[in-house]
């Protein structure tokens, strides 16, 4: 199996004035195609920081992150954005949908940015929103949707470009148990044909146990359990 994301001796510190907070220390691991992985660890241990690095939203202080075998520190911001768009989907803890746009346009946006024609992008978006059970909510704006529905739109948006890896940061963190279960089942469904790797940050052990690998982050170091 090929590597989709690789961390080589990755360290990360936040620098604020004279304050340096070392968060990640010399991490080495990779995510292979089709693999499902949970990242667990206490609040503040650096999970979101790590996910942002792996998604190419930030660059490491030391070491290298490779996405699809390309070192993200060695390419321009523009190329990094393109590499990310081509390979990765990202679901945030809080949905980060655009409030002025309908579900349909929120989902279509990544395709429109990639240069898809509008008709094709909207048709594809309608299909994926139907798949996540929102065929009757196409024209609703995020403020007109429930928390679980918003998270389903966010998942549809992350998957519309058919990424090789879906990164999700506490995707069910602010949902009730029933909605969390639905959203999780939807994410796992995406991995069924083993074409999409999943990387999920979670506090919930029942979610982590559904993944094939569990990585625990403690004191800036990662251990496979
Ligand atoms: N912009 C920043 N500047 C300085 N320190 C930061 C910044 N962002 C995060 N930190 C610190 O880095 C550490 C790791 O933060 P991070 O958000 O990665 O944790 P987390 O594991 O995702 O936590 P949670 O489970 O609560 O989401 C925390 O101690 C946090 O205070
Ligand atoms: Mg976090």
Give the SSE layout.
Blueprint: E1 3-16, E2 19-32, E3 36-40, H1 47-54, E4 62-67, E5 70-71, H2 77-87, E6 88-91, H3 103-113, H4 118-131, H5 147-159, E7 165-169, H6 177-190, E8 197-201, H7 205-208, E9 213-218, E10 221-224
Parallel strand pairs: 3-8, 3-9, 6-7, 7-8
Antiparallel strand pairs: 1-2, 1-4, 4-5, 9-10
The structure holds adenosine-5'-triphosphate (ATP) and magnesium ion.
CATH topology: Rossmann fold
The span between the termini is 21 Å
Say how many strands there are.
Answer: 10
Quote the beta fraction: 25-35%
- What value does the Rg take, in angstroms? 17 Å
Q: State the CATH class.
A: Alpha Beta
**Uncertain spans:** none
Give an account of the 3D structure.
Helices cover 33% and strands 29% of the residues. The chain has 225 residues and is α/β, with parallel strands linked by helices. The chain has one domain (3-12, 23-224): P-loop containing nucleotide triphosphate hydrolases (Rossmann fold, 3-Layer(aba) Sandwich). Strand 9 and strand 10 form a beta hairpin. Helix 3 (103-113) crosses helix 4 (118-131), helix 3 (103-113) packs parallel to helix 5 and helix 5 runs parallel beside helix 6. The longest helix is centred in the middle third of the chain and has 14 residues, at 118-131. The relative contact order is 0.19. The structure holds adenosine-5'-triphosphate and magnesium ion. Adenosine-5'-triphosphate binds at residues 14, 16, 21, 23, 41, 43-49.
């Amino acid at each position: 199996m090929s590597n989709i994301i690789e961390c080589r001796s990755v360290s990360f510190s936040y620098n604020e004035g004279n304050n340096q907070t070392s968060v990640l220390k010399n991490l080495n691991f990779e995510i292979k195609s089709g693999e499902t992985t949970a990242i667990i660890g206490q609040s503040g241990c650096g999970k979101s920081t790590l996910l942002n690095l792996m998604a190419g939203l930030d660059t490491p202080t030391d070491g290298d992150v490779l996405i699809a075998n390309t070192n993200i520190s060695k390419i321009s911001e523009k190329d990094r954005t393109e590499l990310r768009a081509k390979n990765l989907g990202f679901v945030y803890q809080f949905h980060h949908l655009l409030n002025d746009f309908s579900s349909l346009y929120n989902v279509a946006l990544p395709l429109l940015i990639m240069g898809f024609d509008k008709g094709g992008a909207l048709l594809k978006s309608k299909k994926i929103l139907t798949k996540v059970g929102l065929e009757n909510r196409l024209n609703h704006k995020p403020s007109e949707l429930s928390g679980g529905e918003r998270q389903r739109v966010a998942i549809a948006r992350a998957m519309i470009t058919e990424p090789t890896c879906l990164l999700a940061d506490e995707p069910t963190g602010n949902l009730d148990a029933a909605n969390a279960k639905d959203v999780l089942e939807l994410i796992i469904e995406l991995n069924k044909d083993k074409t999409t790797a999943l990387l999920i940050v979670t506090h919930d052990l029942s979610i982590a146990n559904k993944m094939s690998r569990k990585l625990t982050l403690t004191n800036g170091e990662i251990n496979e359990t």
